[in-house]
Amino acid sequence: MLVKRNAGTAATRASLARRLNGLSAGTAGLGETVDRRGFLKTSGLAAGGMAALGALPAAMIQKAEAGPTLPNVEVVTRKNVCTHCSVGCTVIAEVQNGVWTGQEPGWESPISQGAHCAKGASVRELTKGERRVKYPMKLVDGQWQRISWDQAIEEIGNKLLEIRQQSGPDATFWLGSAKFSNEGAYLFRKLAAFWGTNNVDHQARICHSTTVAGVANTWGYGAMTNSYNDIQNSKALLIIGGNPAEAHPVSLPHMLRGKEHNRAPFIVIDPRFTRTAAHATDYVRIRPGTDIPVTWGILWHIFENGWEDKEYIRQRVYGMDEVRAEVKKWDPATVERVSGVPGEQLYRVAEALAKNRPSTVIWCMGITQKTTGTANVRALSILQLALGNIGTAGGGANIYRGHCNVQGATDFGLDVSTLPSYYGLAEGAWKHFCRVWDVDYDWMKSRFSSKELMEAKGIPTTRWFDGVTYKPEEIQQPSPLKAMVVFGHGGNTVTRMPEMLKGLEQLSLLVIADPHPTTFAAFKERRNGTYILPACTQFETDGSRTCSNRSVQWGEKVVEPIFESKDDYTIIYLLARKFGFADEMFKHITVEQTRPVPEDILREINRGCLSTGYTGQSPERLKMHMKHQADFDKITMQATSGPLKGEYYGLPWPCWGHPELRHPGCAVLYDTSKHVMEGGGVFRARFGVERNGVSLLADGSYSKGSEIEDGYPEFTMAMLRKLGWDKDLTAEEMRVIQAIGGDKVDEVSWQTDLSMGIIRVAMKHGCVPHGNAKARAVAWNLPDPVPLHREPIYSPRPELVKEYPAIEDRRDYRLPQLARSLQFKIADSDIRQRFPFILTSGRLVEYEGGGEETRSNPWLAELQQSMFVEINPKDAERLGIRDGGMVWVYGPEDNSKARMRALVTERIGAGTVFMPFHFSGYWQGNSLRENYPPGTDPIVLGEPANGVTTYGYDPMTFMQETKVTLCRVEPA
Amino acid sequence: MHRDEKPKAAKTGLERRSLLKGLGLGAAGAAAAAAALRAAPAEAMESRQEQVKSRYRETDHVKRFYALNRL
Amino acid sequence: MARMKFLCDAERCIECNACVTACKNEHDIPWGINRRRVITLKDGVPGERSISMACMHCNDPPCAAVCPVDCFYQTADGVVLHSKDLCIGCGYCFYACPFGAPQYPQATNFGGRGKMDKCTFCTGGPEADNTMEEYQKYGTNRLAEGKLPLCAEMCSTRALMAGDGDVLADIYKERTVRRGYGSGAWGWSTAYGQNDRGDAFSPGREGTGGS
């Protein structure tokens, strides 16, 4: 049904013929310029087109622009995926002569159906790249010098090897990116492993690390349980701590259709009346940092009225009674005292969720970026368990991930605490990956300073600078960090930027591989030892990316890398080659010249990442899915016709077993109403089979067609033997299992069996390989087994601090963590008086992340030209602040301050101010524009919100607190 | 600054625009003379009748758009 | 004969500005020219609604009525177009237009504005369809290619619609019925009081006004 581009060409030709009829031969040459964008070729980078309209009088335009163009320039259509958020909108690019000249709606996409937001509708600009880094550069005495790739790799490599020699492998911090493809993320993690460190991290640390920790500890996997599309099945929606209308605009059509078709209550809980709240049926304004009181306040009404799903809880949830005891404390009066939310309003919310099932809960960084992030996530998960909403279409915990591949990059272990696919760092995990990589375990061990450090979590990105500046004895590794290699990650994304700058200054080596120079390059604290490598965008290479809903989409290269940029694979390869381990690292990955082939990387992923079910998504299958997008249902995401009939779009993980098994992927996790071979599932048995005499396995609940009609532990050889199912293994599978297990064959599990025989046999009997357990309302391995409210470190309510104290000070991730001592000190000081506003932060639709890329895009930059702080009219009036006037925002640490415009609006409640976090390029009132390498400064600069944010970390993941701190605002 | 207020060309924008002016002229300058010989704009004009004729057709593409709006 | 219309469903519009950048992308519109923009009313308070605005391609366009050089014309599809060759940049159309559609590339000390630019409903101008000349002055001509304006085609929430006015009216009616409350037409509550407006904050409640 969708008209292909060539049909359009035919229409154009017809018009040409018609015109030629009436025209003299003399115009034929001009007539041949029918192609509407062919002229772009003459101006090389297509930049000329920008000036075509308006800027010049029409007559001049003609002279300047109308060069000869090739007649009927062939239009090649390429399909890729938007690089700006986790929704995964299809981008249809039209390419002429190797230049991306047009963009059409990708209507066949089951996810986006042709839609884009401001960012997606402007991605073509990325490959024009006026402001991109064009060639490798190094900083010499404060001046940027152009150098060759060879020189860059040679010098960077030598310096890194020297640091490794002198200070050990852990002295280098490898910061990867959620902008990587899956293959790039996996390769980067592998690079860090071969280098010999676990100091490798990426943006997930600062977006959903607490979600992953929270939900994985509840029911097994750290991901969105359902999908954007599935929200259309929801009978009620609760959006808490998220503003998808700006952060994930193309999720909104699904949510609004759910609202309209089902007449579903659409409830938004947020300190700020967001653009999402503008479409809400009920808006609840809370004090920032009181998510648990509010969640327990909702659950209080549910328990009080007996609205919980008792049978579901009996069969599938462990420990709900302990939660009940905690929730009991949160009666409406207490909730109102702490959070400011009236009891009857939460009654209405509870009733809406309970009486309109299945109901879904959607959350984002308002929940996760907190000192209680993991506990917040757990509380919401428990709310959904109480309502029996997990494992059902229309229900679920719909966690919106941030970046375009933050889910995939997390899955592939760009993380200080695990190898790819959440295998962890224990010896068994390393041995598994050494088998996958076909390298000797002892050799791998020799790459690290010690076996202990090989199995110890690294320093996370939220605190890398503490790893540089703290005294060596405070850091649990042989040396503080000396070098940092950053791929695709802004420098304004972490809190406590004044401290970050000190760390930046002390690094001996800083390497930035990015399409843009990033904030890291803009500070003049560094005068030498900084290198910038031009990395291209995902539109200039190919590879797969995983959306928030776990669907994996293959992006096709649209154009060749522009200027001298190279893709991530190539840069990683060049570094590995320089380090001398490229042959080992790419043993089973074809390298074409210096570019590893992404398909081969994915095949290696398919062979080794069994535990998350990343085995079935072969490059061939993914490409078929992109080709046959039109065959998928727009709500269920299941193909209803064509060669992929029955499969779910993008084979959302887990997609069990070999690709040949044709597992369809799982659209809804833990869904017992389906057979495991049809995408059904159960809660993962990850935490043993019993605790204190109570079974942790599911009770009488199992996925459709399971031969074991009850809970069961995860599958191992021992279990297969016990069941007598080992006979179903083929001789080849048995051979592989024996080779892996040696004299401990019984211990080979579904996760380590590279033959995938155990998985195949389990599914043959209708069982889910990871076992069938209860979800845990009580997670005894976490600091708070049952989520407890704890006031933020910089609490705006000092009188509540003793009642709801932060956790005890502790150590983790090789660093000390202050919590209660600091919180009490602050509460006892006059900070609250001197910094009377609560400061919270969030996103704007036009920009993404640190914002360097999007602020360099003129089409977006024009829409949002200055950094601002939202302040309520009552506060503004009191302080003499005018709408649009300049103000200073002061933070309570390091004499921090930032200058920006005031946006006076009731959007934000009195006593709270809001800042977007995408800005950078100003520092404490001064422009840093001159510091960027010439021609690479983003169009719009502004003060970074994190210039005034403060200390505070989640104990599980060291997630930073960006949503609640204190500040003072004064007219500038 | 109101978020819904879109200020006219900021300073940076103007700079960028003038940069592009140079680029466009430079890149296509040589070709311009040749093109001017062939390109007589008046001859590319549509007649009044052609100008106002209907162009809209309910193609599959358009039908697809309507269908998506009904979802 | 089908008549081309834009219709923005304010219940759907989330002010994501996709329409704005899609337009920029499709026609390579320079900084400072905004053929389309998103307007938000009641910004930041309950009742906040946004609507995407461009040239509305009026039945009886006031811009054409005041143009001293008669550079406007309307196609059989109802699309209002103009000739940049005729335009003298006087700015009268800007004063006449109720929607602020006309845009000007220049602002000089002598009042020169340059040739007026505005939304063409992706239908180009008086030059032959899909030629270089047409593209350079007016942008692409999607209508001639059997497509619709890209702003609507890429709208994130299917708020902004473009096409045959009768079809759009039907689609909008279907949506209103489905929602169970009125369109919340602009000005309704001012003219007839809050009760008749229908209530976006209580979907499921029987609608009264607007539908």
Biggest protein-protein contact in the assembly: A-C, 79 and 68 residues
Shape of chain C: globular
| CATH T-level topology of the largest domain in chain A | Rossmann fold
- Placed side by side, the strands forming the largest sheet of chain C appear as 1-6
Number of domains of chain C: 1
Distance between the termini of chain A: 58 Å
CATH class of the largest domain in chain A: Alpha Beta
SSE order of chain C, one letter for each helix or strand:
EHEEHEEHHHEHH
Question: Which descriptors apply to this entry?
Answer:
heterotrimer, B: 71 residues, mainly alpha, 3 helices, 61% helix, 0% strand, rod-shaped, disordered N terminus, C: 211 residues, alpha+beta, Alpha-Beta Plaits, two-stranded antiparallel ribbon, two-stranded antiparallel sheet, 7 helices, 6 strands, 12% strand, disordered C terminus
Structure description:
Chain A is of the alpha/beta class and 972 residues long. Chain A has 5 domains: 5-65, no CATH class; 137-206 and 406-609, Rossmann fold, CATH 3.40.50; 209-399, 3-Layer(aba) Sandwich (Dimethylsulfoxide Reductase, domain 2); 666-776, no CATH class; 798-971, Barwin-like endoglucanases (Beta Barrel). Chain A has a 7-stranded mixed β-sheet, with helices on one face. Chain A has a 6-stranded mixed beta barrel with strand order 26-30-27-29-28-33. Chain A has a 5-stranded parallel β-sheet with strand order 10-9-8-12-13, sandwiched between helices. In chain A, a hairpin with a 2-residue loop joins strand 4 (137-140) and strand 5 (143-146). With 71 residues, chain B is mostly helical. Chain B starts with 10 loop residues before the first helix and ends with a helix. Chain C has a single domain, classed as Alpha-Beta Plaits (2-Layer Sandwich). By secondary structure, chain C is α+β, with helices and mostly antiparallel strands. Chain C has 7 helices and 6 strands; from the N terminus they run E-H-E-E-H-E-E-H-H-H-E-H-H. Classes of the chains: A alpha/beta (972), B mainly alpha (71), C alpha+beta (211). Chains A and C meet through helix 1, helix 3, helix 4, strand 3 and helix 10 of A and helix 1, helix 4 and helix 6 of C. Chain C: Residues 4-34, 78-107 form the 4Fe-4S ferredoxin-type domain. Chain C: This is Formate dehydrogenase.
